[in-house]
UniProtKB/TrEMBL annotation:
<keyword id="KW-1133">Transmembrane helix</keyword>
<keyword id="KW-0496">Mitochondrion</keyword>
<comment type="similarity">
    <text>Belongs to the fungal cytochrome c oxidase subunit 7a family.</text>
</comment>
<feature type="transmembrane region" description="Helical">
    <location>
        <begin position="14"/>
        <end position="33"/>
    </location>
</feature>
<dbReference type="GO" id="GO:0006123">
    <property type="term" value="P:mitochondrial electron transport, cytochrome c to oxygen"/>
</dbReference>
<keyword id="KW-0812">Transmembrane</keyword>
<keyword id="KW-0999">Mitochondrion inner membrane</keyword>
<comment type="pathway">
    <text>Energy metabolism; oxidative phosphorylation.</text>
</comment>
<keyword id="KW-0472">Membrane</keyword>
<dbReference type="GO" id="GO:0004129">
    <property type="term" value="F:cytochrome-c oxidase activity"/>
</dbReference>
<keyword id="KW-0560">Oxidoreductase</keyword>
<comment type="function">
    <text>Component of the cytochrome c oxidase, the last enzyme in the mitochondrial electron transport chain which drives oxidative phosphorylation.</text>
</comment>
<dbReference type="GO" id="GO:0005743">
    <property type="term" value="C:mitochondrial inner membrane"/>
</dbReference>
<dbReference type="GO" id="GO:0016491">
    <property type="term" value="F:oxidoreductase activity"/>
</dbReference>
<protein>
    <recommendedName>
        <fullName>Cytochrome c oxidase subunit 9, mitochondrial</fullName>
    </recommendedName>
</protein>
<dbReference type="InterPro" id="IPR014368">
    <property type="entry name" value="Cyt_c_oxidase_su7a_fun"/>
</dbReference>
Length: 63
């Protein structure tokens, strides 16, 4: 007795799989962008503003 082949599984769940993949991918992208990337950029900008203020203060003190 042969086992019948499983057909149509990919087609039946294709749109569900694509939708879940896109949804999770976009969600992960937003989580990274707002949770990690923007905080890093803010920290970097704060550092450079502080550095520029220190340089300006040193230039004013030596002039």
């Amino acid at each position: 007795m042969a086992i019948a082949p499983i057909t149509g599984k990919l087609r039946k769940r294709f749109w569900l799989d694509v939708g879940c993949a896109l949804g999770l991918g976009v969600s992960a992208g937003y989580a990274y962008w707002y949770g990690v990337h923007l905080k890093h950029i803010e920290r970097q900008e704060t550092f450079y503003v502080k550095l520029e203020k220190e340089r300006a203060a040193a230039a004013a003190a030596s002039a």
